[in-house]
Amino acid sequence: MTSVDLLDLDSALTEEERQIRAVVRQVVDDRVRPHVAGWYETGQVPARELAREFGKLGLLGMHLTGYGCAGSTAVAYGLACLELEAGDSGVRSLVSVQGSLAMYAVWRFGSEEQKQRWLPAMAAGEAIGSFGLTEPDHGSDPASMASRARRDGDDWVLSGSKMWITNAPIADVTVIWARTDSGVRGFVVPMDTPGVTAREITRKMSLRASLTGEISLDDVRLPADAQLPGATGLKAPLSCLTEARHGIVWGALGAARDCLETALGYATTRTQFGRPLAGFQLTQAKLADMAVEWNKGYLLALQLGRLADAGKLRPEQVSVGKLNNVREALAIARQCRTILGANGVSGDYPVMRHANNLESVLTYEGTSEIHQLVIGQRLTGISAFV
């Protein structure tokens, strides 16, 4: 298979980063690619089994330190996300939500007791986590969340609902964000707590190899120590989203690469009018433009990863990466579909599956419009959110 790397990008990686990438690519080739078309078609995925396998490889919370986490670099984590999403966006979402949202929230804001109880099991894939911020009526505007937590003696009582929550149908624990009399707070909620119910969202046309649910909280009583002591205000969950978006910046490149490699292979072997599709100027122009955008997106992701490893990454910089790389990945998937013609909509090829998945990736953890406003505020010094 011809490489889409036009710029000798591997030379910018360390040997350890290349080795980690190779390990993840192999597990995706062995464990995901042979089955993912069927998972997508049926809307079923062996998430718990995959989580245990990923846990054995150290992929869950891999960029965190201690508590059974691998303590890898941000770039290594990004490369892992790229390879996972080359298999399927839903598989990468399983790892991202587990590590960069649920585990990260506990790791950064939790008490030592919370960390000891949950993080080792989550790192091993023995406990599945989810992250409850989005609500049925409040997606891009989490400041307007309707979920409430009130004190009752020493306890907390939570009520409300969360929507579009990855891993919720099988989660053992969810980090729930709710409004209190003193602002937004986070709570570690075991999913077997009385009053908690999770309903799987079905009939999805995207991310079908990912389990998504709605969580209902009906006067859920929690002890005082369920609150994340370090999480005060809306900045806490937003910082978790920034952490997860970094993985998306890389992951979208994986879906785009898989589409581009598929289109390259197809164009060089499919003959029309007595010559391969790749021999036509219009096809080469499409392939060239897509490869250039992919390489630019990779350089952007690598720069953000290096900034993260240096402790210098800012939220608006992540917005640049999420806006550009997901938008371009979706454009690449759509263009690759045209090269495959009618075969582009067949489940025998991954292109339409990636395109459908990227429609969700374009929306979740900040729509393109939200990231444009974040960047616009950085450029102008004026907030256009209100």
Features:
Butyryl-Coa Dehydrogenase, subunit A, domain 1; 11 helices; alpha+beta; Butyryl-CoA Dehydrogenase, subunit A, domain 3; 386 residues; 3 domains; globular; three-stranded mixed beta sheet; Butyryl-CoA Dehydrogenase, subunit A, domain 2; four-stranded antiparallel beta sheet
Query: How many domains in all?
Result: 3
**Total count of strands:** 11
Largest sheet: 4 strands, antiparallel
Look at the structure and give the mean pLDDT. 97
What is the element layout, followed by pairings?
Layout: H1 15-32, H2 36-42, H3 47-57, E1 65-66, E2 69-70, H4 74-87, H5 89-109, H6 112-123, E3 129-132, E4 148-152, E5 155-166, E6 173-180, E7 183-190, E8 196-200, E9 212-222, H7 235-269, E10 271-272, E11 275-276, H8 281-309, H9 315-340, H10 351-363, H11 368-380
Parallel strand pairs: 3-6
Antiparallel strand pairs: 1-2, 4-5, 5-9, 6-7, 8-9, 10-11
Helix pairs in contact: 1-4, 4-5, 4-7, 5-6, 5-7, 7-8, 7-9, 7-10, 8-9, 9-10, 9-11
Domain Acyl-CoA dehydrogenase/oxidase N-terminal: 14-126
GO molecular function: fatty-acyl-CoA binding; flavin adenine dinucleotide binding; glutaryl-CoA dehydrogenase activity
GO biological process, one term: fatty acid beta-oxidation using acyl-CoA dehydrogenase
